[in-house]
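Fig. S4 source data, part A: sequence.
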Amino acid sequence: CLSGQDSTKRFNRFLRHLGEAPVIYDRERTVQACTNMQLTVRNMGYLNAEVFLLEKTKKNKMKVFYRIVPHDRYHVRNFTFNVQDDSLRSVLDSLDYQPAMGKALNQSNNPYSINSLESERSKLYGLLIENGYYKFNKDYIHFRVDTTLGNHLSDVEMIVKPAQGNADSTDLSHHRYHIGNISYDFSTQKPFLRPKVLRNATAISSGQLYREASMHETYARMSRLSAVLAANVRVEEREGEDTLDVNISLSPNKRNSFSAELEGTNSAGDFGAAASLTYQNRNLFRGSELFNIKLRGAFEAIKGLSGYADQNFIEYSIESGITFPDFKLPFLRPSFRRNAQATTEVNFAFDSQDRPEFHRRVLTGVLRYRWTRMNRQLQHRFDLLDIDYVFMPWISDTFRDKYLSDPQNRNAILKYNYENLFITSWSYHFAYTSMPLGTTASNYGTNAYTLRLGLETAGNLLYGITSGTHTQQNDEGQYTLFNIAYAQYAKFDFAFCKSFL
């Protein structure tokens, strides 16, 4: 061994960390790998494929080589779709379903592949469970393949078998189920959510066909409610009927929570402290509204500042917001409200800073809507109103003369940061990802991409009002509101990301 036997020596331990540890040759695993390769290639349509194993030994090392001989690939000559259930066949006809392999026969090249057959089975199964066939499973779909035709051709028959009876194994028609009663059970004595909130979070309705995606969506919506700790969606079949009753069980989340934080700071030798208190209510009006409020105060003793009367920094702030689990907008279609996963956010913040150099007051507020559809590939955000108000009640003469008025140190951006500011804007952003819901990056390959677009404008409405009413302009020719010149701009941003992994 190059590293030696003495593991107490540092150099030997260093050598042992280099490279890879030796692997003991296991012929049984090698033969199994050879078999797996052959099976994989044959599933791709190379039914006569062979994989040869070659082993070369040199001293105590073994080199293994695999040689794959695929031979000719089989192709599909005829494809037959045989549905042995008349009622199911009529439903598939109404859905205009035709297997992709059957469509491909019109093309000159239609290779045979086990993987293609499994894909056909999954597509048909997914179509049926989304159209009322609650009890249907993949075992009802079979394939009969004849590869004895010669010339590497095959005839494929896709068979959908009828449902099986009980003891006598009598063939039955597959039942198409509808949703019956929808009930809600609460682990508390009284319901902790209003009926309207429950209806909006339920993606199914009485009388509609059973859809598995809607059941999963209902569970996801219930679980996303801040007032809900746990949700369970249970389906019960009515005896002798093609009807499914749905029961939704809900357990409440902890309604109120408090938290406190203490901080100690040291900025270039200036010591300070801060404290904050946060309160959260997850079900403010029995509609799963998430309410937050945070109070914060900070103090810092600043040393080494000459020319300033005060030597301390004091800050206090308040942040508050409420998030509703739906759209708070009138005139929206009920179907849109039901299918969109939406939130309405109202946020407010005020911050007061008293420094030796200046005093600053910052007030912000926003009314925001977020929504997405069931597949969650396209997400929207619309800020209907976003207000930013910055007021500088006092700036010390020393700071103004040194940084804002001195021609040698004058900086337009720096000066702008210490002026009164008023911005009213609205914006729209959306993001699209090509990766479907439930797909991971590892199995999606290099085809994933994300597209983001955004548009934001500010001050245009105010400009139209003030200019139309002939409001007095300030000395710099700017229109003002509350004696503060408001910002006016338009901004567009675009981003495209592609995965190359």
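Fig. S4 source data, part B ends here. The two ends are 38 Å apart (CA to CA).
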